[in-house]
Structure formats: structure tokens, C-alpha cells
Design a protein that fits this description.
The protein is of the alpha+beta class and 209 residues long. It has 4 helices and 12 strands; from the N terminus they run αββββββββββαββαα. The protein is 27% helix and 23% strand.
């Protein structure tokens, strides 16, 4: 009984530790018109930092039914989060960064609203399900069929609030060298946290057996 209680405490601590994560997503850059990684898994309380590299991109929330359209509540008119346009020169010594806090484990899609970037596949997702009609692959495939509305660069304001996630503040910046490192390690936090959660489950399973 004591061993069982101890293992549950250990598992609980591991899960709490694994959920306190910051994940980094690279926006554009040398990888092209993509978010890297394009799909991540995040727990409530996690933060996701978008690091903008060269060119001019946005991180704009959309629904899985309309990947290339700003998420808008038809009744209230409230919209999803939107970083607006963030231009970055190719030789920039610092890269802008924008951080969201995850408020729910439901799926949250986002895209770049610059020109035709979304319809060219520049979309991403937080907590996209692995099966069904809302997987990331389904979201990406639908985005590529959309007729995206071109908006003038700098034509909208930043929207911090969203559905399932909210910005923690205004744009900050990171050194270009740090952004390069982030690009190489992007997505590793999701893998690490998932592994810790599996370890917690294994502790419980072994004790029960």
C-alpha cells in the first residue's frame, strides 16, 4: 500500500513537472513558409514562444474548419489571437518573439495571414488530435485548398486574447544566435514532456503489477 502511494506521488510530481514547459516555434526563416515544428502538444499552463525569422509573418488563430481565416465569434465579434505582421530583416541581429500561454487542451490552429502564405501551407496547431477530422494533416490539407484574402502588411492590430490561449505580453526579442539554436531544438520540449508523462504512467503500472 505504501509503495503504491509512493509511486502515485512520484507519478504526480513527474506529470506536474512535465506540464511546466515552454515550447518554441520558429516562424518562417530558412525552412521557408512553415512553422517549425508545425504541430505541438501542450498542457494547460505551458507557454509557446514564437520566434520570428526573416521576412514578414503573423501568428493568427483560426478554426480547423476555416484554416486561413481569423477566428471570429459570430455573436460577439471577438476574435482569436493575432500577432499582426512582424517584419524581420535577413541580417537582423535580434529576432522578435511572441509568447502564448495555453489555457485549454482543446485544439488551437494558427496561420500566417501574409499574402498567400496560408494557402501555401504556412499553418500550425497546438493540441491537434491524432485521429478524426481535426488532425494536423487534415488542417494542413484544407488550408492548401483555401482562397486566402490578401491583407496589406501592418494593416491590423495585435490581439492578445484568443480561444484556448492568450498572449502573455507584447513582442520581445531574442538574439539571432539564440534564435538559430531554438530552430535546431524546436519540438524537443514536447518530446521530453511526453516521455516524462509516459515514465509516470510506467511507475504506476509497475507498482500495480
Amino acid at each position: 500500500m505504501l509503495a503504491s502511494s509512493l509511486s502515485l506521488l512520484v507519478a504526480s510530481a513527474l506529470v506536474r513537472l512535465s506540464s511546466a514547459a515552454n515550447q518554441q516555434v520558429i516562424v518562417g526563416g530558412t525552412a521557408g513558409l512553415v512553422f517549425t515544428p508545425s504541430s505541438i502538444t501542450a498542457a494547460v499552463g505551458d507557454t509557446v514562444t514564437f520566434i520570428y525569422q526573416s521576412k514578414n509573418h503573423t501568428v493568427t488563430q483560426s478554426s480547423f474548419a476555416a484554416p486561413c481565416t481569423l477566428l471570429t465569434n459570430a455573436t460577439s465579434g471577438a476574435t482569436g489571437f493575432d500577432s499582426s505582421y512582424v517584419p524581420v530583416a535577413a541580417n537582423a541581429t535580434e529576432n522578435p518573439a511572441w509568447t502564448l500561454e495555453v489555457l485549454a487542451t482543446t485544439e488551437s490552429g494558427f496561420f500566417c495571414k501574409q499574402s498567400t502564405h496560408c494557402s501555401m501551407g504556412m499553418v500550425g496547431a497546438i493540441n491537434a488530435p491524432a485521429t478524426g477530422n481535426k488532425t494536423f494533416d487534415a488542417y494542413l490539407a484544407l488550408a492548401k485548398t483555401q482562397q486566402q484574402t490578401t491583407e496589406a502588411a501592418g494593416g491590423t492590430s495585435v490581439v492578445s486574447s484568443g480561444v484556448g490561449a492568450v498572449a502573455t505580453g507584447s513582442l520581445s526579442s531574442v538574439a539571432a544566435s539564440s534564435a538559430t539554436t531554438a530552430a535546431k531544438t524546436a519540438g524537443s520540449e514536447t518530446i521530453k514532456r511526453s516521455g516524462m508523462a509516459l515514465l509516470a504512467c510506467a511507475v504506476v503500472a509497475i507498482t500495480v503489477l
